[in-house]
Design goal:
heterotrimer, A mainly alpha, B alpha/beta, C mainly alpha, A: mainly alpha, two-stranded antiparallel ribbon, 3 helices, 2 strands, C: mainly alpha, Sodium/glucose cotransporter, Helix Hairpins, 4 domains, 37 helices, coiled coil (chain C)
Chain lengths: 66, 122, 921
């Protein structure tokens, strides 16, 4: 029961976390003409954040809703 | 023929005192310092009575008693348990395992002699 | 090899493959060995979200707005984090009420209203038909591009269009056939299509593989990786602006509104509702889909920007539409195999979307538009002789054909017009209008039919005015005066700057006004009057879907019905054989062995209604059931009373459950406490028994010897002296035992006196060795000392330490073999204190005994010779003394090689400071 509540809270946290990562103003911090490993910064940032959010969701839901 | 008695106790001073007492009364006395030795001596020497301490190293008095009673050849051997733990459970456990009598330490020498004689039918 | 016959043959073969997979999936479903009972297939089927608008259109969007194509995929990713709440609840509601479409869902929630279901259907059809047209257009464009191979000719000339358009007409017909075969094979009470889902999952895989293939080819085949493409872009300021999030300079509201919009589209697009909710076979599949579907979205987007930039670089100066880059880039390299794969991928994206969307829309159109009309005109209800299942299937098949033809018609009319290009987001905005009624309906009991009707209508009208009509105007179908000057020339009514609102892009603008109108009307009208009995009932069923509500619906039905009437009614829609089987199975479940329910109670009526709901929608089902069952209408007060009772019962049973859980926990606690007490009792008992034992043993000797001496005055002098000596030593033993027992009791209760002072440990050790030298001499043992000078002082009680040392030394000597014994006493410096060790070469201590010897009254020894003559308290006391001063006492021993007792003591605090100062200096 408590595990379920914990996992639910984690998913909601992942949702809110993703909302912050993918929107103004955090997004604007990366929105500039710079490159990482010759890839535009904002492009690299979004895909990186995307992978992180998916990983957190997978971890929260697969591990805790047995 | 004098009766043969085995004293099995790990407290040397107690052994010395009982040995002295019984010899003075004309018994033939054997001594064992632990449970295993006691069992071996009973099998080898066939004493008429064993004075068996409960708290002994290697094999406690209850186990020795049980082993003796499991051997039909030794059914004639009387067993008198001696213990320093005077709880009722211990008394009934000893009697339940087939001991013939039970004495709590410290005991009076007169009572011990009386109990010994009674068990030997004297 | 890309001539028309080849292209057509490959397309037909691919569609044939889909038919085969779908057929196989249905076969397996009939055999109860479901092919799609697999979370990965479920996740893949959700990827029907990615249509040609993604497959071809993402690159087109990226070529104009840079990474502006991404929010449409970030929104669904985020909403999937909430799938365990939203989607799960929707699935539960849909399964419990046999809901078959989103129109049915909304109509059922607000009291099974026909009008509401119809309105939702109309909004869905109006919003989605252009989207279907877009798919047909994409297929026809890709066909006409292929047919001009090896030239790259943009397909906007009417000459080429006619051929390709004909092809897309046939494609529409083929898709209609496909959809009819697998969408309306039989009328099911659950309305699930396993074969179709299997085919959709396959299509999702194909389009992903095709897109990744072209992405890898462009990025690594035509260019030298991501880095190469972006470096070339750096040289062009025109392209460089595409590498930031906001190239158009419209701010982040557009970005944000796309995330919101796409999140709602994922939940409320009819095709998404169909695959994610209606077709769900096992709610546990959500777990995998929650992350696998977002991962799919991520993968299909990785290469979008490189392809767009690569295309812009490659076709610079040429008339090549960015929407076609996915296809034209491999064509320009004469890579025929890849070109064909991409074409099949695009075909997959189009057909998948069209098939699922059409099934969903046709179900809605049949159950929520046509059936209610037929029932209203009493053509169906009283014509009792007819088997209506054929009629129903006919209606659905007709609806499928009509919808696809409407799509084709729209495509032919719109052609290259703006109305088609922008339709993706316009469609999303239309279905987003369902959000307030859907989400409000699932979480708010107060929502009413009037509120939902008002909200949906208002939202739909604002959507049409601010987005749909302007798109018509931009296509030239309407005079665009009203765009620039407002309706009737009133400037405040300009559709894309409504009431003078500027600063938003058109989507954000529409979203804001339509939601304001929608939510405002929904809430406002809902609050005008209390819910009716029917609305309150359904509100409970929906809002409490995740609780174990029990048959609320059945509790709220009162009336009379005949079993035979109900069965006949169901038979008319599902066929007599199926109806018979379903009723028999139901009776068996209720415990009626004969398979014939004796009377129609509320639950049976409910069961019949839910069967019908699966076939004709919940609103129509209610009307049909009412036609054969005499229902006594319940007043709202009665309904509320029953609902109250149900919820009280629920609360009560929850309370009971909680109480019983608490009781169980309390019982466990008590048992544990009792066990602990018994344990303590046993320990105390053991100690008491040990103490008595230790006291009785010397007393036994003393009494026996005393009586012997008393009874025998003529005893030999030698015996007399010996016995008196033994009496004295046993008396000493008794004294020692009493002292140590009291000592230990004092230490343990914390009432011992400690005289702590700084002392030199070396002196203590030397003093103790001197005190025991007599014992060593008696055993002829050798004592070796290794005690360095100038060690730091420690803080401890001198007498207590001597007590410890004496105990260790006398223990050591006790077990030494006479003559050959050696004891080594060492003192050494540790980082934080001193360590003393006493090592002997005695028999050693068995590993299993090394802990025991520190317990009270546990004496261990080689008893071949004699019992060790201690009290069994020396080591426990020593250990407590050492621990009191912050040290540790333990033993190390290998049996046969002796034992080493060690203890440590920390430095005195002052000393520690001094040492630190020395170290610092």
């Amino acid at each position: 029961m408590h595990r379920r509540v914990l996992a639910s809270d984690r998913l909601i946290a992942a949702f809110l976390f993703g909302c912050v990562l993918f929107n103004y103003p955090v997004l604007s911090l990366f929105d500039r003409h710079t490159t990482v490993l010759s890839i535009p910064l904002v492009y690299a940032y979004i895909f990186f954040a995307w992978v992180v959010v998916i990983a957190v969701m997978a971890w929260a839901i697969e591990r805790h809703f047995k | 023929m004098s009766k043969k008695i085995l004293i099995a106790d790990d407290e040397q001073n107690i052994v010395i005192s009982i040995e002295f007492l019984l010899r003075r009364e004309g018994f033939e006395v054997l001594v064992a310092g632990d449970g295993e030795e006691a069992l071996a001596k009973v099998r080898a020497e066939r004493p008429d009575l064993v004075l068996l301490d409960v708290m002994m190293p290697r094999m406690n008095g209850f186990d020795v008693c049980q082993a003796l009673r499991a051997d039909p050849d030794l059914s004639a051997t009387r067993i008198l348990m001696l213990t320093a733990k005077g709880r009722d459970t211990e008394v009934s456990k000893g009697l339940g395992l087939g001991a013939d009598g039970y004495m709590t330490k410290p005991f009076s020498t007169k009572e011990l002699l009386a109990e010994v004689r009674k068990l030997l039918g004297m | 090899m890309l001539e028309a016959p080849v292209v057509i043959a490959v397309s037909l073969i691919y569609l044939g493959l889909l038919f085969a997979v779908a057929w196989w999936g249905d076969e397996r479903a009939d055999q109860k060995r479901s092919l799609i009972a697999n979370p990965t297939i479920y996740a893949l089927s959700m990827a029907v979200y990615c249509t040609t608008w993604t497959f071809y259109g993402s690159v087109g969007r990226a070529a104009v707005s840079g990474i502006g194509f991404l929010p449409v995929y970030l929104g669904p990713t985020l909403v999937m984090a909430l799938c365990w709440f939203l989607l799960l609840k929707m699935i539960r509601i849909v399964k419990a009420n046999r809901i078959t479409s989103i129109a049915d869902f909304i109509s059922s929630r607000y009291g099974k209203s026909h009008v509401l279901g119809g309105l939702v259907t109309v909004i869905a059809v109006v919003g989605i038909i252009p989207y279907i047209a877009l798919q047909l257009k994409a297929v026809s464009s890709s066909v006409s591009l292929l047919l001009s191979y090896p030239e790259i000719v943009m397909p906007n000339h009417s000459a080429t269009m006619s051929v390709a358009a004909d092809i897309s007409f046939y494609i529409a017909l083929i898709l209609a056939a496909f959809t009819i075969v697998f969408g309306t094979r039989h009328l099911d009470a659950t309305e699930r299509h396993e074969g179709m889902v299997a085919a959709i999952a396959l299509e999702s895989s194909v389009k992903l593989v095709a897109f990744l293939a072209v992405g890898v080819y462009v990025t690594y085949g035509m260019y030298d990786g991501f880095g190469d493409i972006f470096e070339r872009v750096n040289a062009s300021p025109e392209l460089l602006r595409l590498t930031t999030a906001i190239p158009s300079g419209k701010g982040y509201t557009g970005w944000f509104s796309l995330i919101v919009l796409s999140a709602m589209a994922l939940l409320f697009l009819p095709r998404q509702f169909q695959v994610a909710v209606v077709e769900n076979v096992n709610e546990a599949h959500l777990k995998r889909a929650a992350w696998l579907f977002p991962l799919y979205l991520l993968l299909i987007n990785v290469f979008v920007l490189p392809i767009a930039l690569g295309g812009l670089l490659h076709f610079v100066g040429q008339d090549v539409d960015a929407d076609t880059f996915v296809l034209t880039l491999p064509m320009s390299q004469r890579h025929e195999g890849l070109t064909l794969l991409v074409f099949i991928g695009g075909l997959s994206a189009a057909t998948g979307m069209v098939i699922v969307e059409t099934i969903a829309l046709s179900t809605m159109a049949c159950n929520d538009l046509v059936m209610p009309l037929l029932i209203r005109h009493k053509r169906v209800a009283f014509d009792e002789s007819r088997d209506l299942s054929r009629l129903l299937l006919g209606i659905r098949r007709g609806a499928i054909v009509v919808i696809l033809l409407l799509g084709y018609l729209y495509f032919r009319l719109a052609g290259e017009a703006y109305a088609l290009v922008a339709i993706g987001l316009i469609s999303f905005s239309a279905v987003a209008q369902f959000a307030p009624a859907m989400i409000g309906g699932m979480y708010w009991r107060g929502g009413t039919r009037d509120g939902a009707l008002a909200g949906l209508s208002a939202g739909f009208l604002v959507w049409a005015y601010t987005l749909l009509l302007p798109s018509f105007a931009k296509s030239g179908w309407l005079p665009d005066d009203f765009l620039t000057q407002g309706l009737f020339g009133i400037e405040l009514l300009r559709p894309q700057q409504l009431f003078g609102l500027t600063g938003f892009d058109e989507i954000a603008h529409c979203l804001f006004w339509s939601f304001l109108a929608n939510i405002g009307a929904y809430v406002g009208f809902s609050l005008l009057r209390p819910p009716t009995a029917a609305e309150a009932t359904q509100a409970t069923v929906f809002v409490d879907a995740l609780k174990d509500a029990g048959p609320v619906g059945a509790a709220l039905w009162r009336g009379r019905a005949k079993v035979s009437d109900l069965q006949e009614l169901v038979a008319r829609f599902l066929g007599p054989a199926r109806a018979q089987a379903l009723f028999t199975a139901y009776a068996r479940r209720r415990g009626v062995a004969s398979g014939v329910m004796p009377e129609a109670d509320a639950q049976l009526v409910q069961f019949a209604e839910s069967l019908l709901a699966g076939a004709i929608g919940s609103a129509s089902a209610r009307v049909m059931v009412a036609s054969v069952a005499k229902e006594e209408p319940l007043s709202i007060d009665e309904v509320m009373h029953i609902l109250d009772e149900a919820s009280q019962l629920r609360t009560y049973s929850r309370e009971l459950e909680r109480k019983s859980r608490e009781l169980t926990a309390a019982t466990l606690d008590l048992q544990e406490a009792n066990q602990r007490l018994q344990e303590l009792d046993r320990v105390k008992d053991d100690i008491m028994s040990s103490v008595t034992h230790e006291l009785r043993t010397p007393l036994t000797s003393i009494r026996a010897f005393s009586e012997l001496l008393r009874d025998d005055p003529r005893m030999h002098l030698a015996d007399r002296e010996r016995f008196l000596g033994l009496i004295v030593s046993e008396a000493e033993r008794l004294t020692r035992l009493i002292n140590q027992t009291l000592d230990l009791a004092k230490i343990e209760s914390g009432r011992a006196d400690w005289n702590g002072c700084e002392l030199n440990l070396k002196e203590v050790v030397e003093q103790s060795v001197a005190a025991t030298s007599q014992l060593f001499r008696e055993k002829e043992a050798h004592v070796e000392l290794d005690l360095p000078d100038n060690l730091p002082l420690i803080l401890a009680d001198r007498d207590r330490l001597i007590q410890v040392m004496l105990n260790l030394l006398s223990n050591a000597v006790k077990f030494l073999a006479p003559g050959s014994g050696r004891v080594k006493v060492m003192l050494c410096l540790l980082a934080d204190g001193l360590e003393v060790s006493v090592a002997d070469n005695g028999p050693g201590i068995r590993p299993e005994d090394q802990q025991l010897i520190f317990e009270k009254f546990r004496q261990v020894g080689d008893t071949m010779t004699a019992k060790p003559s201690g009290t069994g308290l020396g080591l426990p006391i020593s250990r407590r003394i050492v621990e009191h001063f912050g040290g540790r006492l333990w033993v190390e021993s290998v049996p046969g090689e002796g034992a080493t007792f060690r203890f440590t003591l920390p430095f005195a605090p002052v000393q520690e400071q001094a040492l630190a100062q020395v170290a610092a200096a």
